[in-house]
């Protein structure tokens, strides 16, 4: 009897089993990606496939590398985060030799729809042409323009994105461009667009990440789809060692009901980024005082590779501090949009603030430069950014204009300061 068998023998009376304990965890948070045809490199939807990787499962969940969930607080919708007890259970199962338990009590593995999960869409479009992803080389960030896909304006209540090739598509973000800037850059095979899509305003309609559900707008707050605008897909590709081809498609769902409330974007950010090599704790900040009562619905962070941590919080008028987002270990590859589990009420005169911390040292495994080099603000792969978007809705509709004017003033002050360049 080998070591695994001995451990299984001694722990069989108390050890977790796949059938009773582990399968429900994997089915809840892993197999949407780890299944045949999924985006992950191997399946975990059966006992044999999970058991031979028990040690790996215990290691990556113990380090919180998997499931790919970055925030430590607060609570968000559709969280993939495992609890400490769940992580300990997976470790105990692996240590005990990955016992199967009684196969008869194993819950059925979930099934996944092959078509659009929300049914027939009002508009279905795809990339104009296929894109060839090379076998090797760095990750690619490519934008593809779908010119004026629909006549007239529409209210969008939901969208779904289906990658054409889940082997190489890492994530997708959908923008709409009313300036027609993007179509001038897309000569037929898209254009490189790391960080930002290259036009303003760059309001996102939603996106797709591995295991994501269809993106649905908050109730009563559909997003305006401009009939004269272009759709722009920003896709992150990851080469896998052999040539692949992708042609991603998307579905939009419209509603006749105009918004009952208006959602506004509170942007925080800084371009005053000039990080010397070796600096492991470089910090940038920004803040904005909200002049009216609002409900915060969601939050969207953005930085590049050497960002280490992101902290966003609200200072209420009475001095109370409330966390809006805390990411202790930022990873550019797993960025996404987050919706609060419950809307957060922020009263008038609340200050919303952000702190981004960067690690430009040689000990940062995500540093693209070894040895480290000076890194400044910019849209390039090895540049850095600091952006945070808080989605809010005024509690009283009559306060919308006041908040819009305050946000406009903030944007003008930011533009008036110009782009920060080292040495100025």
In short:
The protein is an alpha+beta fold. It is built from seven helices and 22 strands.
Any descriptors?
single chain, 424 residues, alpha+beta, Jelly Rolls, 3 domains, 5-stranded antiparallel beta sheet, 22 strands, 16% helix, globular
Report on the architecture of this protein:
- The protein is an alpha+beta fold.
- The chain folds into three domains: 3-105, no CATH class; 123-255, Copper type II, ascorbate-dependent monooxygenase, N-terminal domain (Jelly Rolls, Sandwich), CATH 2.60.120.310; 264-416, Jelly Rolls (Sandwich), CATH 2.60.120.
- The protein has seven helices and 22 strands.
- Helix 2 (18-29) packs across helix 5 (84-95).
- The relative contact order is 0.14.
Strand content: 25-35%
CATH class of the largest domain: Mainly Beta
> Which term fits the overall shape?
globular
Query: Overall mean pLDDT score?
Result: 88
Helix content: 10-25%
Structural class: alpha+beta
The CATH topology label of the largest domain is: Jelly Rolls
Topology:
Elements: H1 3-11, H2 18-29, H3 47-51, H4 54-62, H5 84-95, E1 123-126, E2 131-133, E3 140-146, E4 154-162, E5 169-177, H6 181-185, E6 191-192, E7 204-208, E8 215-216, E9 223-225, E10 230-237, E11 244-246, E12 249-255, E13 264-269, E14 274-275, E15 282-290, E16 294-302, E17 307-315, E18 321-327, E19 338-346, E20 350-358, E21 375-376, E22 387-394, H7 400-416
Antiparallel strand pairs: 1-12, 2-11, 3-6, 3-10, 4-8, 4-9, 4-12, 5-7, 5-10, 13-22, 14-21, 15-20, 16-19, 16-22, 17-18, 17-20
Helix pairs in contact: 2-5, 4-5
């Amino acid at each position: 009897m080998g070591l695994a068998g001995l451990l299984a023998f001694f722990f069989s009376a108390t050890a977790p089993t796949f059938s009773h304990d582990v399968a429900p965890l994997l089915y809840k948070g892993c197999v949407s990606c780890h299944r045949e045809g999924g985006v992950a490199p191997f399946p975990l939807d059966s006992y044999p496939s999970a058991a031979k990787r028990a040690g790996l499962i215990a290691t990556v969940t113990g380090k919180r590398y998997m499931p790919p969930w970055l925030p430590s607080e607060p609570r968000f919708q559709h969280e993939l985060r495992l609890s400490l007890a769940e992580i300990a259970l997976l470790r105990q199962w692996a240590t005990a030799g990955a016992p199967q338990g009684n196969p008869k009590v194993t819950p059925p593995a979930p099934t996944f729809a092959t078509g659009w999960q929300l049914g027939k869409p009002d508009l279905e479009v795809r990339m104009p042409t296929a894109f060839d992803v090379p076998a090797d080389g760095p990750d690619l960030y490519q934008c593809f323009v779908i010119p004026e896909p629909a006549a007239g304006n529409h209210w969008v209540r939901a969208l779904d994105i289906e990658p054409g090739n889940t082997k190489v598509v890492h994530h997708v973000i959908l923008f709409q461009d009313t300036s027609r800037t993007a179509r001038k850059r897309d000569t037929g095979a898209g254009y490189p667009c790391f960080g930002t899509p290259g036009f303003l305003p760059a309001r996102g309609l939603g996106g797709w990440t591995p295991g994501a559900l269809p993106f649905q707008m908050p109730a009563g707050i559909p997003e305006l789809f401009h009939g004269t605008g272009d759709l722009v897909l920003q896709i992150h590709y990851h080469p896998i060692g052999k040539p692949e081809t992708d042609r991603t498609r998307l579905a939009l769902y419209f509603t006749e009901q105009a918004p009952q409330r208006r959602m506004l974007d509170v942007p925080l950010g800084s371009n005053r980024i000039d990080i010397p090599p070796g600096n492991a704790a470089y910090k940038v900040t920004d803040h904005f005082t909200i002049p009216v009562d609002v409900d915060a619905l969601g939050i969207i962070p953005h930085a590049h590779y050497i960002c280490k941590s992101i902290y966003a919080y609200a200072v209420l008028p009475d001095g109370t501090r409330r966390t809006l987002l805390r990411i202790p270990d930022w990873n550019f590859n797993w960025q996404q949009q987050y919706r609060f589990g419950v809307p957060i009420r922020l009263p008038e005169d609340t200050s919303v603030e952000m702190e981004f911390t960067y690690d430009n040292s040689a000990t940062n495994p995500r540093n693209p430069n070894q040895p480290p080099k000076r890194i400044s603000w910019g849209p390039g792969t090895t540049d850095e950014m600091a952006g945070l978007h808080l989605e809010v809705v005024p509690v009283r509709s009559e306060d919308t204009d006041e908040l819009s004017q305050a946000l406009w003033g903030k944007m003008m002050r930011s533009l008036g300061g110009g782009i920060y360049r080292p040495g100025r």
